[in-house]
Every structure is written in C-alpha cells, then in structure tokens.
Amino acid sequence: MKEWCKGCRFCVEFCPQHILYETDETNSRGYHVAAMADSSKCIGCEMCTMICPEFAIHVVTNGEEAGQEVK
Amino acid sequence: MSELAVNSEKTRENHPLGEYLRTDRFPHIWCSGCGLGIVLSAFIRSLLNCGLALDKVAVVSGIGCTGRAAGYLKLDSFHTTHGRAIPFATGLKLANPELEVIVFSGDGDLAAIGGNHLIHAGRRNIDMTVLCVNNFTYGMTGGQFGPTTPSAARSTTSRAGNVENPFNMVGLAAASGAIYVARWTTAQVRQLERSTTEALQRKGFSFVEIISPCPTYYGRMNRQPTGLDQMRYYRANTVVKHFASPHEVGVALGGQIVTGKFIDTERPYLPHPQEGHDGA
Q1: ipTM of this model?
Q2: Has residue B250 been placed in a domain?
Q3: B63 lies in a domain?
Q4: Closest A-chain CA to B16
Q5: Cα separation of B107 and A21, whole Å?
C-alpha cells in the first residue's frame, strides 16, 4: 500500500533475498516507496511483512509460486 | 504473478492483519523509522497464535507514542491516563477474570509516572501481560530524558549527556515478582512474536520489554539519525542469553544489548482461579 509506506527502508534492509529496493517514486506524503526487483526470487518468508512498521507490505502468493509483494 | 495492487480498500482488507486494525485511522501517526508498528504487528500475530477469543481480549494503554497502539487495534481497548494503565488493567482483570488483559505502553509511562504501579502489580502477581516498548526517551513530548535513558546519552534536556543512572526494566520487573520476564529488540521479530505468545499464555504477571528505535528524538541525538541506523545497531550488538540474571543486563549507551527470556516460573496469582466470577 503505497500511501501507508513511510520510506523507512526496513524491508529493504531485512529482506534475506535482497530483492526489495527504494524507488524514486514518491507517494502523496513525499516518502520514497519500496518495490520488488525480481518476484521470482521471493521465498515468501514474510520477513518484510513482519518488519514493516506501517502495515504497508505483505506477501501475496499466487498458486504454487510464492510471492508478489504489494506496496 | 498477481497484479500489483495499489492503495485500494480491497488491498487494505487483504493485508493479513487488516481485519484486526482500525484501518480508517491509517497511516498511523508514528514517525518513519519508529519501531512501534513492528511491535504492534508482532503482538497481533501472537494473539492469533494463542487462539484466544478476541472478544475476551482487552488492551489497555497509557499515554505516549506507544499509548496510541490501543487506538489502532480493532479490539476492546482502553486508552487511560498517564501512567495508570496498570491500575486500570488490574481493575478490569479483577472485575472480569475471564478477560485476557494486556497492557501495551511505553517506558515513560510504565517506568516513570507508572513505576509504582508496575512494581505493585508484579508484587500482587496480577494475571496480565505487560508489553513495555522502551525507546529510552519521552518521544511524544519532545525527547526529554527519562528513567530509562542510558547514562551519557544526549536528549533535548541533557545536551551534554545524561548524568543519571537508568532503570533496568527487566531487573525491575523481576525484582517486583513477575513470573515471566523477557527482553527483545524490534530487529528480532520472530523471537519477539514467540516470546509475546508465551507471555500471553502464562498465568500471572508477564513482562516483555521491547527495545525500539526512536530516530526522531533518541537516535538523532545519539548518532543514529534514522530508524535504520538503530536497527543495524541492534542487529550488530544484540546477544541472546536465555535465563541470564535480569539484574545484570542493563543497557549502556553504545554497548551490547542482552536479550532473551530471563525468567519463566510460576507462583500463585490474582485473581485466584477459585474466586473467579465466571462461574467456573
């Protein structure tokens, strides 16, 4: 959820696969939101969900494949 | 792969914890880099792990940044006066022994103005869980030093460094008679969730201290200007020592943070099970 993100970069730092990054895109509050580089590498560990203080990110599993993160 | 969902009502409802949050109040007021949201989400997950009936859960919070947590939970919650979260919770528990009462508050609330209530709730061993989020400062009022601010740490009211000795919260809770005492940092989310689950299951006064970043006041004054800097510091300087003596695990400025479960025991608690009014 982009509008909830406050650009703290906890998810970027704590993702064990290092596939999240901070974008240049800003939300309406001016924070740089995070995004996922390569969804095929996501292992669905939900570390980003747990570490996000804003409840802005969570893992969406699609069938057998783990992983699309929603920001 | 699923489509990238954006800020829609549907997405909010789809967040695994969305149904336990008052999402109309989001985004919350906590600063970027604050750890309170991490603690809140770990707490909700541990509530779900316990399988408690959520209409029998009451969250009581005091004043301060952490006190706002009760307002974001879609549970029975009670936002009380400054420092008096534990007395309100004690009354709630004694009048309704079937309720699971959780006190969710900060160090300024529980250790400073509510310090007396904390030690007496521990002495009486009231069956409740206290989650104390310790950010070492008074965040909401402008970053004054408080009873947990480490010696030599700078704050808006101690520009040259704090001259006082801080309280060691886990030592205080242990000395008061708590039956479950643990400390974690916000960088240890899985351990925190497991520990909070255990604390909720214990019968008696359970105390979990959670060390959390406050980049806006504490971190900025002490060379950790962002929440991420503080999280990196926690990750690099945290050691886990289960059942270490809680009296020897004080937190010093720039020093090692000893975390773990320090006490896990049993002793008679209030309200006494036979005296319950729940007809049991």
Answers
A1: 0.89
A2: yes
A3: yes
A4: A58
A5: 33
Residues of A with a Cβ under 8 Å from any B Cβ are 1-4, 6-10, 13-14, 29, 31, 39, 47, 49-56, 58, 60, 62, 65, 67-68, 70-71
Tokens of B218: 């504490």
Domain that holds residue B149: 21-274
B187-233 pLDDT per residue, tens = 999 999 999 999 999 999 999 999 999 999 999 999 999 999 999 99
How many domains, chain B?
1
Proportion of chain A in helix, strand, coil states, percent, rounded to 5:
25, 30, 45
From the list B16, B227, B232, the residue facing A49 with the nearest CB is B16
Q: Alpha carbon of A29 to those of A4, A25, B213: distances in Å?
A: 9, 11, 22
pTM of the model: 0.91
Domain count, chain A: 1
H/E stretch holding B44: helix B36-50
Which of B5, B6, B21 lies at the smallest CB-CB distance from A55?
Answer: B21
